[in-house]
Every structure is written in structure tokens, then in C-alpha cells.
Design brief:
Blueprint (H helix, E strand, L loop, with lengths): L16 E5 L2 E4 L4 E4 L2 H4 L8 H13 L10 H14 L3 E5 L2 H18 L7 E5 L8 H6 L17 E4 L6 H4 L5 E7 L1 E2 L5 E2 L2 H13 L3 E6 L12 H5 L5 E4 L10 E5 L20 H14 L4 H18 L5 E7 L2 E6 L4 H12 L1 E2 L1 E3 L3 E4 L7 H16 L2
Parallel strand pairs: 3-15, 5-6, 5-7, 7-10, 10-11
Antiparallel strand pairs: 1-2, 2-3, 4-12, 8-9, 11-12, 13-14, 14-17, 16-17
Helix pairs in contact: 2-9, 3-9, 10-12, 11-12
């Protein structure tokens, strides 16, 4: 249906969604789906969350857009509250994760030039990472499958190291290194977990070489892994954090937070965006932030994630391999080669929205406020279809 009118760059399924409530969706034919996908970790408070809907309506009645010659009242409020909650000193608003990481890359390059000249421009990322679809963020992505020949030549100045490899960080960084960029949980790479001790050691080594340290929190940020920022739990205290996806509960928004050596690097004209700091997105972002900061909310994200992982493990299904994740960012390895995509299709037909990641991993990223009843309903579908593989 939709594929006849919209270019299918996404390999989308032939399903056209109509509406939702909480963590339940319906398509145009009235079919119901339990949402373990949340628009790929975007709809952090589910669908039709009343405070979010009300805030967007109220802001739409005031103004939808204020150009960047000025600031908006709601944009200033969101920036101030976000900086206070995260402990950062500055913020740049954008519209997407790719744009946020692009801003981080530009900041790192300028920082390197300011602190080492033309030779300090190399940015290290991790193997199996994913950082976006622009030319620079695509190059930064540590997966060969995202580097087809027809997009070449790629942007120079990016190198990768293997995550959790202690030997690699002993010799990787030198006076050409501008930054180390760590994806705190590798979502697209297969929901791979980064060892906190290794992340801290890698950050120390990069800083010793004169570089800054950056965290890609496009998917892991804003409560997804059970803390406001996933880097908080990893403990490596990045100078720059990129964010997007769930920050505004479904309204497009992204950007970077910066502090310490990264503060005051950007000057007027270094990086701009027409829609950055859009008042509608900032109004939505305030609702999300206030919800995340409510007592017990982030703890509930961790508890729900542990419940899902333990429940799936308790089935002792031979089709299931390793189960890993943090908070409500969960990866389930499927043992039969190439069967994760087949399982995703079966789950969709049965009424459960999921995605795949890495080589053969089923990825679950439901809304952070998903109910126990919706979790159990979704798990019942998952159990049945795993059995039918």
C-alpha cells in the first residue's frame, strides 16, 4: 500500500499504521499490535500520552517555529533544565541523531585543530558501532556493511578499535587523535554491552594523548538503559554527548551536550540548523524530561528490562542464544542462522512489533512506560513464535 507512493529506502513491511494508545498500535485495517519497538526507541512514552499530547497542542497554539536569529522561551527552559539534570555546561539542538553526531564530529575536529594543529584530526570509534547515515557519520560507523563502494570516497580521519579490547587502547591514541567516540550500548551492532572498566580506561588513554571523549547516546540516552544517560552508568564522563530518538517522545529532535574542554569550542557560524531548537520539540522534550525525573521512573525501566530478560531465559527455548541488554534496550540472539529477520516477520504477523540488529539478534526497545499487561501480552506472542521457528 504505502510502498506504491513512498520510496522504500527502509525495506519497510507492507503495513500502514493508523493510531495507538500506550504501547499498543493499530493499523489501517484495525489489526492490533503490541509495541516492543517504539518507533526504534523514539516513542519513549508510547503513543497518545496525555501530558505530551497536551503540551504539543498548547505549543502549537503559540508558535511552531522560531528562527535561530532568536531563542524561544520554551527552548531556553528546556536547555536550562536539561543542563541541570545532566551536569553539562552547554547544549546544541538539532533534529536527528545523525545531525547530533555530525555536530559532535565537527566539534572534535575543531578541538583537535585548536589543540594540536592540522595533524590532530583523527576520531576513533568502536568496531560494530553505528553513528548515522550522513557521509561523516556513516564513515564513523564501525561496520563494513554500511560502507558500500558506491558511496566512496568516504570521509578521511576515522579509525576503529575493538570494544572491550584492553591491548588495543595501549597503542591506539597519539598526537593525531582528536576524539574517542563510544556508543554506550551498540544498538544496530547487536545490542552489545560495553564494559565500564574498559570504557573508563579507554577514555583515560585518549585524554592522556590530548583527545576529548564523546558518547553516542542517540539510542541509549534519556532513560532507555535505566539511567538518564547511559554514560552515567559507564562512568567515563564524556566531554560531549550526542542525543536524539526518545528525547522528545516522537517529535524530531537531536543535538549534543558538552562540557569541560569541549565547552566554548563552537563559535557563531561553526554549525547551524534551520529547525534546531524547534519550540514544538522543546515543549515535548520538557514533558519527557519531567517524566524521567519522577521518583522511581528510571528504576522501573531497569526492573521491566530485567523482567523481560529473565522471562525469556526461563523458557529454555533452543532457538534462543545469549540474552543481553540494559534497561529496555534488549537483544536476543537467535541460534538458527538468518532466522532473526524471519522471526521479526512472524512476530509482526502475530501482532508484535520488534526489530533486528547485528548478525542475528532480535532487538526489543519498547516505550519506557510500557505496562506490565502489555509486556506480558507481547511476551506471550514472542514465546509462541519462538516455538514455531
Amino acid at each position: 500500500m504505502g510502498s506504491k507512493t513512498v520510496v522504500n529506502n527502509y525495506g519497510a513491511f507492507d503495513v500502514v499504521m493508523s493510531h495507538g494508545k500506550g504501547s499498543t498500535m493499530w493499523d489501517v485495517n484495525g489489526k492490533k499490535y503490541i509495541d516492543f519497538l517504539a518507533g526504534i526507541a523514539v516513542n519513549s512514552l508510547g503513543t497518545d500520552y496525555p501530558p505530551l499530547v497536551e503540551a504539543v497542542k498548547k505549543q502549537a497554539e503559540k508558535t511552531l517555529h522560531v528562527c535561530n536569529y532568536f531563542m524561544s522561551d520554551v527552548g531556553v527552559q528546556f536547555a536550562e533544565e536539561l543542563l541541570k539534570a545532566t551536569g553539562f555546561e552547554g547544549i546544541y539542538f538539532g533534529n536527528s541523531g545523525g545531525e547530533g553526531n555530525e555536530a559532535a564530529i565537527k566539534l572534535a575536529r575543531k578541538y583537535g585543530h585548536m589543540n594540536g594543529g592540522e595533524k590532530r584530526y583523527v576520531i576513533y570509534t568502536l568496531e560494530s558501532s553505528f553513528h548515522g547515515r550522513t557521509m561523516a557519520t556513516l564513515t564513523a560507523t564501525g561496520q563494513d556493511k554500511f560502507h558500500p563502494d558506491y558511496f566512496a570516497p568516504y570521509v578521511e580521519g576515522f579509525k576503529t578499535i575493538k570494544p572491550n579490547d584492553w591491548e588495543a587502547i595501549k597503542t591506539a591514541f597519539d598526537d593525531t587523535t582528536a576524539a574517542l567516540l563510544i556508543e554506550c550500548v551498540q544498538g544496530e551492532g547487536g545490542v552489545n554491552i560495553i564494559d565500564p572498566a574498559w570504557a573508563q580506561a579507554a577514555a583515560d588513554a585518549a585524554r592522556k594523548a590530548g583527545a576529548i571523549v564523546m558518547a553516542d547516546e542517540v539510542q541509549t540516552g534519556f532513560g532507555r538503559t535505566g539511567t538518564l544517560l547511559a554514560s552515567d552508568a559507564l562512568g567515563f564522563k564524556p566531554e560531549v554527548v550526542s542525543f536524539a530518538k526518545g528525547v522528545a517522545g516522537g517529535i524530531p529532535m537531536g543535538g549534543i551536550l558538552f562540557r569541560g574542554k569541549a565547552n566554548n569550542v563552537f563559535k557563531a557560524g561553526d554549525h547551524q540548523s534551520t529547525f534546531a531548537g524547534n519550540p514544538l520539540a522543546c515543549a515535548a522534550g520538557l514533558v519527557v524530561l519531567h517524566e524521567l525525573l519522577k521518583p522511581g521512573f528510571l528504576d522501573s525501566v531497569t526492573e521491566k528490562g530485567e523482567y523481560i530478560k529473565k522471562t525469556v531465559a526461563s523458557w529454555n527455548n533452543p532457538n534462543v542464544g545469549e540474552i543481553r541488554g540494559k534497561g529496555l534496550m534488549i537483544g536476543i540472539d537467535i541460534n538458527d542462522p538468518k532466522s532473526a529477520l524471519e522471526l521479526e516477520k512472524k512476530l509482526l504477523a502475530a501482532g508484535l512489533l520488534t526489530s533486528t540488529a547485528g548478525r542475528n539478534t532480535l532487538r526489543l526497545v519498547p516505550p519506557l512506560n510500557i505496562s506490565k499487561e502489555e509486556i506480558d501480552e507481547g511476551l506471550a506472542i514472542l514465546k509462541q513464535e519462538l516455538t514455531n521457528l
